[in-house]
Amino acid sequence: MATSSKRRNNYFLLSLGCSKNTVDSESMAQLLSKAGMQGVDSAKKAEVLIVNTCGFISAAKDESISALRELAENKKPDQLLIAAGCLSQRYGGELVERIPGLDGVIGTRRWMDIVDFVTSLRARKHPEPLYHLPTDAITVGSDERGAARVSIQGASAYIKIADGCRRPCAFCAIPLIKGTAVSRPVESIVAEAQQLARMGTQEIILVAQDSTDYGHDLGIKDGLAHLLEQLTDRVPEMPWIRIMYAYPGAVTDRMIEVMATRPQILHYLDIPLQHGSRKTLQRMRRPANIEWVYRTVEKMRVAMPDLAIRTTFIVGYPGETDQEFGELKQFVRDLQFDRVGAFTYSLEENTPSFDQPDHVPQEIKEARRDELMEIQQQISLAKNQAQVGKTLKVLVEGEGDGLTIARSYRDAPEIDGYVILDGVATVGEMIPVRITGAMNYDLVATVELNPISLINIG
Predict the structure, then answer these.
(1) Residue 56: CA count within 13 A, CB half-sphere
(2) Quick one: how far is CA 390 from the chain centroid?
(3) Burial class of residue 453, CB neighbours in 10 A (0-12, 13-18, 19+)
(4) What is the DSSP track for 225-257?
(5) What is each CA distance from 302 to 10, 257, 338, in whole angstroms?
(6) What is the pLDDT of residue 441?
(7) 3-class DSSP state for residue 125?
(8) Nearest of 195, 223, 229, 194 to residue 211 by alpha carbon
(9) Nearest to 195 by CA among 234, 153, 169
């Protein structure tokens, strides 16, 4: 059947998973648009349907498979359905067996070939699915086909600085999916930040599977600190630079100094610690030097008294005893993190933890997660209450139900809290506000009417 003229050259791209996945989706969209295709907001309007999947944990896999199945069941004969991203790289041909109607599978390591892949699908003479799943990831950063590795979200933008991971974490499938860590050139990242500044972007968020490993493969010592110096020197007009996904043990003295002395770099660090028990961390194949965490957090807080730290923990890891969970709870009480995310352990095939003994029952995992978050709620509330009376600079994000929503330096997009404003402000602007109230995760504020200096605020 001939392709419908209304759908021809239109593509629909559904992006699932984390912000790093969103960057990949935006990069593919740029290449498709440069090739003369037009993105549309409905699968019914498109010839090419693409789902950029997430394959990190079971819940994400289920969501991706469900989305693919729904599109496959409803697609017309003149439409092409492509599974892209992490789930595709991880499972390849198995997806076709589980999702009849899938036309193509393209993985994470050669996303930049999406236009050629669509061309091949259109030209195929037989209905068998096509696969594009090379294992080589070394071309990342040097063969991006002119696509910016950026995802713009309002006045903020994510920049992917590296892809892949070389860490040995026993529970994680990322190295299987992405391969080893490959850093992008400093010049490419700086050029993207400069372009974003010209567009009026107020915040750039640096993302990677492990941001503190940036530059290792390029031979750059203390690569993340070097990159931050380059960004602040060469893009001085960018108001906020936020760091996500730091690795324990890799936060160096130089990085702390750069964060503390460069005003553009927010006093905010996302550092997934995963647990607070040495024995559990050893089984996880994670850095188990708990003393390092205490020392480094103290060192950072001395250098940046207003530092906001976000971390994540896995509860119910195989072999986690009541004592080990108790050590995690005490760890959280001791360190008083500003933001915490707690997740129950997800059993993942082909990871070292899959075959570990003494798996924790699901009901115990969920109970531990809830208990840990109850502890953290009180800590988060106290941290927020300490902000009352202060003036903070916030980035206005939107309006709804008669309120204005903003974020301070303490709040990363989508995962942290908000500052709820009693007053009208312009979306996309940075303004000073006076904090008047605190909740477990959010703050309440009024817009400052009198001009004030914004130096050192946020």
Answers:
(1) 13
(2) 29
(3) exposed
(4) HHHHHHHHHH-TT--EEEE----TT---HHHHH
(5) 54, 11, 16
(6) 93
(7) coil
(8) 223
(9) 234
CB 176 within 8 A of CB 137: no
Residue 210 tokens read as 């492990």
Q: How far apart are CA 8 and CA 2, in angstroms?
A: 10
Model pLDDT, residue 125: 83
Cβ burial, residue 350 (10 Å; 0-12/13-18/19+): exposed
- Interatomic CA distance for residues 329 and 376, integer angstroms: 9
Tens-digit pLDDT profile for residues 19-30: 888 999 999 999
Q: Are 205 and 19 in contact (CB under 8 A)?
A: yes
Q: How many angstroms separate the most distant Cα atoms in the chain?
A: 70
* DSSP strands (E only) in 271-317: 308-315
Q: Edge-to-edge strand order for the sheet containing 203-207?
A: 150-153, 156-160, 203-207, 240-243, 265-270, 308-315, 339-344
Q: How far apart are CA 355 and CA 375, in angstroms?
A: 31
Q: Report in angstroms the alpha-carbon separations of 130 from 28, 48, 49, 119, 428.
A: 18, 14, 14, 11, 43
| Distance, CA of 114 to CA of 106 (rounded, Å) | 8
* pLDDT over 60 (residue 3): no
User: What is d(CA 165, CA 31) in angstroms, rounded to the nearest whole number?
Assistant: 25
Using DSSP's 3-state secondary structure scheme, residue 278 falls into helix
How far is Cα 354 from Cα 347, in angstroms, rounded to an integer? 6
Residue 339 has a CB neighbour count (10 Å cut-off) of 22
Per-residue pLDDT tens for 137-177?
Answer: 555 556 778 888 999 999 999 999 999 999 999 999 888 88
What is the set of domains in the chain, with CATH numbers? Answer: 10-132 (3.40.50.12160), 150-385 (3.80.30.20), 391-447 (2.40.50.140)
* Of the candidates 387, 394, 389, the residue with the CA atom closest to the CA atom of residue 454: 394
Q: Cα(309)–Cα(339) distance, rounded to whole angstroms?
A: 6
> Buried b / exposed e across 84-103, counting CB within 10 Å, b at 16+?
bbbbbbbbeeebbeebeebb
Distance from the Cα of residue 379 to its chain's centroid:
24
C-alpha dihedral (272, 440, 344, 295), degrees to nearest 10: 30
